[in-house]
Amino acid sequence: MNILLIGPPGAGKGTQALYLEKTYDFQWLATGDILRNEVAKESPLGKNVAAILDRGELVPDHTMIDILRQRMATIGSQHQKGFILDGFPRTKAQASALEAMLDAQHMTLDAIIVMDVEDEDIIQRISHRFHCTQCHYVYNALFHKPRREGRCDRCGATTFGQRRDDKGDVVRHRLKSYHKEVSALLPFYEHGKSKKKVFHIDAMQAIRDVHAQLEHVLLRAEESKRCVK
Ligand code: ADP
Ligand code: ADP
Ligand code: ZN
Fold first, then answer.
1. What is the atom index within ligand 2 of the atom nearest the CA of 126?
2. Which pLDDT score, from 0 to 100, does residue 229 have?
């Protein structure tokens, strides 16, 4: 099962992708995480994109497509269960490049899942988002606290951090550009050959209820995959 997760910043893409990765053993690829990792390593790529990330703008298509091509080349052969793409594609050029990469590897997308959340909730979620600095597990000061205060549930570390781009103006800018991106991107899927594979879910619900909606969508996607075969 190959899945695209589309949703505004703070929709819960990472939270849900981690759950799907653990439950179904999918390979999760998050382009934001890949870029932040490069920035932390101070690699040449990281140095090139750091300021773009801080401003909440998009990294150029050719850079993103190169990154994805490298990652996809390893997925095809190693991951039988499929992948979850989170954060890519964000433009029509990226979507077309993805189609070409998948075609070349005789792979297809099985579910394009759009996580709908209202802007006000996004701002609230993002301003309370924090993560463990060791294992990068994501928490929320209002909605998803560590079980023991000050200690990471997953790795036991006691230091936490916030994303540099999770600040007022940058969040609003990312949100505005998401609406622009998605209005260009969704028609590509909703009117193209993938139109029956687009599923909207209500991502305003609690984390556990969103898990349940996703499981239901995956069942439906699996059924229609079988019907096509
Ligand atoms: P994204 O990857 O889409 O940017 P995250 O998974 O990092 O989003 O979630 C954004 C923030 O909102 C995190 O602090 C996370 O703990 C919290 N969160 C995720 N899903 C929900 C939900 N359904 N309800 C409330 N808070 C959520
Ligand atoms: P969000 O929390 O806004 O969903 P991500 O973690 O997916 O954000 O991405 C963080 C930042 O990384 C974006 O604001 C953008 O600068 C860059 N980025 C990630 N994926 C892409 C992409 N596919 N195209 C262009 N820029 C990207
Ligand atoms: Zn941790």
1. 2
2. 62
pLDDT of residue 80: 75
Distance 148 CA to ligand 2 centre (A): 31
- Tens-place pLDDT, residues 108-155: 999 999 999 999 999 999 999 999 999 999 999 999 999 999 999 999
DSSP string computed for 115-141: EE--HHHHHHHHHTEEEETTT--EEET
Cβ(130)–Cβ(217) below 8 Å:
no
Q: Are 59 and 49 in contact (CB under 8 A)?
A: yes
Cβ–ligand 1 distance for 129 under 6 Å, the answer yes
Residue keyed to tokens 């390593």: 41
Q: What are the backbone dihedrals phi and psi of residue 59, each rounded to the nearest 5 degrees, phi first?
A: -70, 145
Q: Predicted confidence band at 220 (pLDDT cuts at 50, 70, 90)?
A: very high
Compute how many other C-beta atoms are within 10 angstroms of the C-beta atom of residue 110.
Answer: 18
Q: Is ligand 2 within 6 A of the CB of residue 146?
A: no
Nearest residue to 75 via CA among 110, 35, 107, 38: 107
Residue ID of nearest Cα to ligand 2 atom 4? 9
Other Cβ atoms closer than 10 A to 179? 11
Task: Please identify, by atom number, the ligand 1 atom nearest to the C-alpha of residue 207.
Answer: 23
User: Which residue numbers are catalytic?
Assistant: 13, 90, 129, 163, 174
pTM comes to 0.95
